[in-house]
Amino acid sequence: MSQTLVDTPAQAEEVGTIDHWIDGASAPGTGDRTGPVYDPALGIVQKRVRFATAADVGEAVAAASRALPGWRETSISKRQQVLFAFRELLNSRKGELAEILTSEHGKVLSDAAGEIARGLEVVEYACGIAQLMKGEYSEQVSGGIDVYTVRQPIGVVGIISPFNFPAMVPLWFFPMAIATGNTVVLKPSEKDPSAAIWLARLLQEAGLPDGVFNVVHGDKEAVDAVLSHPDIASISFVGSTPIAQYIYETAARNGKRVQALGGAKNHMLVLPDADLDLVADSAVNAGFGSAGERCMAISVVLATDSIADDLVAKVKQRMAGLKTGDGRRSCDMGPLITEQHRDKVATYIDRAAGDGATVVVDGRDGEFDGEASGFWLGPTLIDKVPLDSPVYTDEIFGPVLSIVRVEGYEDGLDIINRGKYGNGTAIFTNDGGAARRFQREVQVGMVGVNVPIPVPVAYHSFGGWKASMFGDAKAYGPAAVQFFTREKAITSRWLDPATHGGINLGFPQHD
Ligand code: NAD
């Protein structure tokens, strides 16, 4: 089967195309390039998605710019009402969205529902924007003078999202961007673009004025047009580290505010006193959920020789019970996103054996509850992975769990802190003092204590350290209010004839 990302208009006609969404309506755009959208469980191209040209991106930005003055002037209460309506619609129709996610991404339906639930949390947080956007006021900072700050929207914001959370990652950003009075141009992943269009239609149904939320599909050409457009004020990006770094540098050079979240390699440090059944359950859940295609997946378990053999046996036993197959059936794990990605992930299994590691479970040997043409790879467990093997150093982004043997806490901490990434990590122990030390010493942005996937709730903010995030504004939570607004400070005096001071050329001081 062809994995070509660009094909002819004639081929697009055969399966149907996914259009852009500009100014409240479907828009075919001006280009003739399209890309395939697979059903990964069936291994077929189910639709083709249009790739935007720079002119198409220009149309979307123009629509967002036209909508901006009206939306910015809309009262906070009215903006909240639209978000409340959107929350109700999304909650009542989330099953439809889950089916879209499963058919284009491949994740099992229950996992798709979980993704939507975490996105809904952000919508609910955004419904409280009236409280979150309040400024500060200082009375009588000098004779008859008051100072206050207000937060104002930054303008048209650009969002560029990855394939692995086609609903949740856009939801991390656009509810807060809209709530704070901005208008949006979203460029979702070209691999699973339908969720973004479904959300756009739902926003319209919730009463969002046309042009406030626009979607353009495409690849680098569309992204570069977003990055260079002078009327886009900020970029919120989530994806792999090399692209995140490119986005950060390019957008910053073009004078935009930018937050760019990148890739990860997340470690779980297991101390010898930990409950090994809890550890094994957690490692399997966090390693193989969504087939390992999560930026917060656990991909490395660090354990001492004293417990590692027992732990490997317990993980292996649980893996035997996992069912990999079509996410619409009752399976635990779905296929990978493309055939190409499945093949790349599988190369690490060969590489592991060559690098001296022990392949305990080889996911290529599994049975799959789905069409033979699906992009299958079963859960894979590799023990004694050396630190210089690409199995350890690379972000594999698939259902491959590595065990690295360590000497103890200090060695484990040192390995984590020497890592290139700093997205998530977890410690498993019953020793509160050790956990507290870990939480203070580890150089990672999100830390779990006996919690394997420590994704913060919507009223805290999400983001990693080091090569997992470029820029200093995290996603959602209080950080989003800061990112999507500019603060203005006003120093005000209403003239009182009794205190009018006459001419004074000195620098203003408070007396
Ligand atoms: P990706 O970097 O390939 O693509 C992300 C976005 O960038 C897509 O919209 C894509 O069209 C665009 N893009 C791709 N190549 C480009 C280029 N050369 N120039 C400009 N734009 C380009 O990432 P992906 O494969 O879609 O997603 C998986 C990656 O995302 C993993 O590395 C994962 O760790 C990361 N991720 C990180 C987080 C986080 O919060 N840190 C969350 C989810 C996913």
TrEMBL record:
GO biological process, one term: L-valine catabolic process
Gene3D superfamilies for this protein: Aldehyde Dehydrogenase, Chain A, domain 1, Aldehyde Dehydrogenase, Chain A, domain 2
Domain Aldehyde dehydrogenase, residue spans: 33-490
Listed Pfam families: Aldedh (PF00171)
EC primary class: oxidoreductase
EC number: 1.2.1.27
Entry's Gene Ontology molecular function annotations: methylmalonate-semialdehyde dehydrogenase (acylating, NAD) activity
Record keywords, A-Z: NAD, Oxidoreductase
NCBIfam families assigned: MMSDH
Protein name (record): methylmalonate-semialdehyde dehydrogenase (CoA acylating)
Organism, scientific name: Agromyces intestinalis
